[in-house]
């Protein structure tokens, strides 16, 4: 019985190391989303930190600030969804088959 427990602990430690490596790799990734046919582009890292916003000059219209705001929101929401999906795909492999509420 003791051998099984030690073996299980080693397996858990191995899985934990794999999870930490996968999480580190996710944090280093870069994600990009555009809106308005590329008029607004938002770049974020895997930690959900916006690292760049690019706005094409021709989309800046002082008489239509709302459109620019909508494009920025759309691109930002899209990039955040990409990060969320990738995180769920990557980290979900570690929780498959486990009924653990609150885990990826």
TrEMBL record:
Residues 1-24 are annotated as: Disordered. Its main location: cytoplasm. GO terms for cellular component: bacterial nucleoid; cytosol. It is found in: Cytoplasm, Nucleoid. Homodimer. Binds to DNA and alters its conformation. May be involved in regulation of gene expression, nucleoid organization and DNA protection. This is Nucleoid-associated protein CIL03_07260. It comes from Virgibacillus indicus. The lineage of its organism: Bacteria, Bacillati, Bacillota, Bacilli, Bacillales.
């Amino acid at each position: 019985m003791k051998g099984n427990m030690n073996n299980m602990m080693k397996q858990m430690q191995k899985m934990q190391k794999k999870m930490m490596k996968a999480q580190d790799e996710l944090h280093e990734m870069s994600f990009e989303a555009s809106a308005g046919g590329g008029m607004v582009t938002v770049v974020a890292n895997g930690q959900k930190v916006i690292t760049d916003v690019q706005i094409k000059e021709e989309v800046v219209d002082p008489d239509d600030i709302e459109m620019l705001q909508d494009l920025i929101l759309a691109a930002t929401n899209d990039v955040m969804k990409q990060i969320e999906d990738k995180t769920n795909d990557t980290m979900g492999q570690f929780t498959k088959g486990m009924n653990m509420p609150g885990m990826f």
